[in-house]
């Protein structure tokens, strides 16, 4: 037995490296004082934290002193904060993210509520520099001995790799789609039993003699009715029902051209497309018009698989395995992972029976190592009762008895099936890209974001006669005609520096020493932040067409699809709910109720004692409070309503400006501010949302006004075609109402023009400028709800400008 005094002196007991560091630290030099006088609640909380296998962090006391366990230690990186931040006040330990996380902790400390975030970007300083890191974490309150909230417990998992993997998957899918659009063959996909046209590249449209707007999302047999009697429907039905591929070479097909049926000879193939459950949901058609050709093209086989979303964070199952009686006590999540009934203990034989037979030796070897080292770690497959195969990651710690025999194992199980599948799909997608590129007679190549070409398809080597080693040694410019090299290099350099599409005609040297004209083009591929990640290019032989072709049509890549739109809409709706629920429930409801309550009491009890001016002030205050109540009700209704249910009304922006100026009358007067506005547009909008947008932007200008400079806020609008406005993201043929709101305030560096719209992001210190950091995020959401765009520009000490573009219905 351990005596009480000894237990206190050695607190905490165990706890790995961090437990040892806590025992060795001189706590008398901190605000906590000697550890022998610590509150029991702190000791209990630290013991739970130190023995957890999941990364945990504790902020404690008025200074929010730092504690963390061994599982959290790797998140700090090398040669960084560890172990110096142990016991250090939070603001000193984490200055780079304090403005981001401190408001979150205040919610927990003041309101006692727990918070949860998934895949939140929180950059931290580690490994000698700032790193972008994504986290899934929760904040929970911790109480002292008297029941007062005295700290915040953080349970977290870094999800940076999962987020980057998801981006790579999306980039790979865009790359495959771009190759299809640039392919010299005619490629189209038909979805569903009615064969609605989903994809049709330029060559397919030319072969059919139709325009894109005539065919997209329409049944192919309705677009080309002349095919009905030529047996094409029967071929499509057979492929759709059986999944058997159909291919034909130089098949005569009559197509309607210039009002007459003309015979074309086409080599083509039909292949079935499958959904995620393995069911046929469409057909892909790959073909060539070989009427005037004598050389047959290699048939192109391609199928586009829909990528599943990578799960944002894995939930953990926990277990306590008794080595002696072979009984395993597991959490409900563990039962769920293994497909077992919840609430019951699991015997060793039942647990092992779920392990995939091929992975039993992996598990056995892991336990043998664990009984020596004390640490258990392995990855295996499990087969659930429903014959579903899952991948799991097991981590744990072995506890030994007094004779150093293993007594029990405590650990966690994480379902990593999604990660395994995503890695496999990424590899398959990359392989499909290379197989498709190598099957094309067209030259395909890619380059990094600095313009260094890092891939050529097989066609380049076959055409030039160069080996990969020789081409790498001499460089791609070696196969370009000497007279074209200078212009080629200049055009490519201009595209790399500006980010504009590359388009250039030049001659390539063939293996027999002759030169042939090529049209080379490349487009930059962007990530979510608008940064160039790579270039995808192609070179097409135009030698025979050079004398009579003035220019080739540029291929337009349609980058949006139905699945991406639905995912984006869902993410937008979730963020809307978070933003507006936060305002309504926390920042507005409580103080508003107090204002209404106290103002009512004063009017009921002190009405006769007030001056006429005082009575007028109270009436105005009650009127403003009622307007605020109505706004909150509208916001709450808005947060629960989908986009399709929102009601748009023709609204005169001039009247809306007048209402907003009345709402902000006192604030404008206090700042000696002037709001100037021209004759503004009338638009179909959601009035209460747009009132909130204008109020937020004007309030923002007042908040960030320059001291001793009267604020001047200018509001202008005009209606113009998208092509007449210098904004790449606008559609050229749509009419927009351009609303510009500018001020003469403190402004901001233009590099932050995207960041200011992010949730909880602040460019200035909280001590100098009040606010929650969500006002401009709400503005952006309201603009997006109206299918519009917003952009911000600023200059320090010269003011900020917000440009809003709303399409006319």
From TrEMBL:
PROSITE patterns xref list: HIS_KIN, PAC, PAS
One GO MF term attached to the UniProt entry: kinase activity
Catalytic reaction annotation: ATP + protein L-histidine = ADP + protein N-phospho-L-histidine
Domain Histidine kinase: 583-809
Domain of life where this protein originates: Bacteria
Cross-referenced PANTHER family: PAC DOMAIN-CONTAINING PROTEIN, PHYTOCHROME-LIKE PROTEIN CPH1
Protein name: histidine kinase
Species in which this protein is naturally found: Algoriphagus winogradskyi
């Amino acid at each position: 037995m351990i005596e009480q005094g000894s237990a206190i002196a050695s607190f905490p007991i165990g706890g790995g490296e961090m437990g040892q560091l806590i025992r060795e630290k001189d706590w008398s030099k901190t605000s906590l004082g000697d550890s022998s006088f610590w509150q029991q609640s702190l000791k209990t909380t630290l013991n739970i934290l130190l023995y957890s296998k999941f990364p945990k962090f504790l902020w404690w006391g008025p200074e929010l002193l730092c504690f963390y366990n061994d599982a959290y230690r790797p998140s700090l990186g090398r040669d960084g904060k560890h172990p110096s931040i142990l016991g250090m006040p939070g603001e000193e330990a984490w200055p780079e993210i304090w403005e981001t996380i401190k408001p979150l902790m205040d919610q927990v400390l003041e309101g006692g509520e727990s918070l949860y975030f998934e895949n939140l970007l929180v950059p931290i300083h580690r490994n000698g520099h700032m790193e972008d890191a994504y986290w899934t974490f929760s904040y929970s309150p911790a109480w002292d001995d008297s029941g007062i909230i005295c700290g915040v417990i953080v349970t977290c998992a870094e999800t940076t790799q999962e987020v980057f993997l998801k981006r790579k998957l999306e980039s790979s899918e865009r790359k495959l789609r771009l190759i299809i659009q640039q392919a010299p063959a005619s490629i189209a996909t038909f979805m569903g039993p009615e064969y609605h046209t989903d994809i049709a590249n330029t060559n397919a449209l030319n072969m059919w003699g139709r325009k894109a707007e005539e065919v997209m999302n329409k049944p192919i047999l309705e677009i080309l009715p002349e095919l009905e009697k030529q047996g094409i429907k029967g071929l499509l039905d057979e492929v759709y029902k059986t999944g058997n591929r159909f291919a034909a070479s130089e098949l005569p097909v009559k197509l309607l051209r210039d009002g007459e049926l003309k015979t074309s000879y086409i080599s083509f193939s039909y292949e079935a497309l499958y959904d995620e459950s393995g069911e046929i949901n469409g057909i892909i058609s790959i073909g060539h018009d070989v009427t005037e050709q004598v050389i047959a093209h290699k048939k192109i086989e391609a199928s586009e698989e829909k990528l599943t979303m990578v799960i944002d964070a894995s939930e953990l199952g926990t277990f306590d395995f008794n080595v002696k009686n072979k009984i395993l006590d597991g959490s409900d999540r563990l039962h769920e992972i293994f497909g077992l009934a919840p609430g019951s203990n699991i015997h060793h034989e039942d647990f092992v029976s779920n392990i995939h037979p091929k992975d039993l030796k992996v598990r056995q070897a892991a336990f043998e190592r664990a009984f020596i080292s004390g640490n258990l770690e392995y990855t295996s497959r499990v087969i659930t009762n429903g014959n579903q195969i899952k991948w799991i990651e097991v981590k744990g710690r072995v506890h030994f008895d007094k004779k150093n025999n293993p007594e029990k194992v405590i650990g966690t199980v994480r379902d990593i099936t999604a990660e395994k599948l995503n890695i496999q799909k990424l590899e398959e997608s990359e392989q499909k890209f290379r197989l498709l590129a190598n099957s094309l007679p067209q030259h395909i190549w890619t380059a990094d974001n600095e313009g260094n070409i890092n891939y050529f398809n097989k066609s380049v080597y076959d055409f030039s006669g160069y080996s990969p080693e020789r081409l790498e040694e001499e460089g791609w410019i070696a196969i370009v005609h000497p007279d074209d090299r200078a212009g080629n290099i200049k055009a490519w350099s201009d595209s790399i520096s500006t980010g504009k599409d590359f388009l250039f005609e030049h001659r390539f040297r063939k293996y027999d020493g002759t030169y042939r004209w090529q049209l080379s083009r490349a487009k930059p591929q962007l990530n979510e932040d608008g940064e160039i990640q790579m270039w995808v290019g192609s070179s097409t032989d135009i030698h025979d067409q050079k004398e009579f072709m003035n220019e080739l049509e540029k291929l337009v890549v349609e980058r949006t699809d139905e699945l991406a739109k639905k995912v984006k809409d869902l993410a937008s709706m979730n963020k809307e709910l978070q933003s507006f629920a936060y305002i309504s429930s926390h920042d507005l409801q409580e103080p508003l109720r107090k204002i209404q309550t106290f103002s009512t009491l004063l009017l009921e009890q002190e009405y006769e004692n007030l001056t006429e001016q005082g009575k007028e002030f109270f009436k105005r205050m009650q009127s403003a409070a009622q307007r605020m109540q109505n706004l909150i009700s509208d916001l709450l209704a808005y947060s629960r309503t989908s986009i399709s249910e929102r009601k748009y009304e023709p609204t005169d922006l001039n009247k809306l400006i007048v209402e907003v100026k009345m709402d902000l009358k006192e604030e404008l007067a206090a700042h000696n501010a002037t709001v100037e506005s021209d004759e503004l547009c009338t638009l179909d909008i959601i009035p209460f949302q747009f009132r909130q947008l204008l109020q937020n932007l004007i309030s923002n200008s007042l908040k960030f006004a320059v001291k001793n400079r009267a604020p001047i806020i200018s509001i202008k609008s005009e209606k113009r075609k998208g092509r007449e406005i210098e904004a790449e993201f606008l559609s050229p043929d749509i009419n927009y109402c351009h609303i510009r709101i500018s001020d003469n305030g403190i402004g901001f560096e233009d590099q932050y023009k995207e960041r200011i719209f992010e949730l909880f992001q602040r460019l200035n210190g909280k001590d100098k400028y009040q606010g929650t950091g969500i006002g401009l995020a709400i503005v952006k959401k309201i603009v997006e709800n109206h299918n519009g765009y917003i952009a911000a520009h600023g200059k320090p000490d010269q003011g900020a400008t917000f440009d809003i573009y709303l399409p006319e219905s």
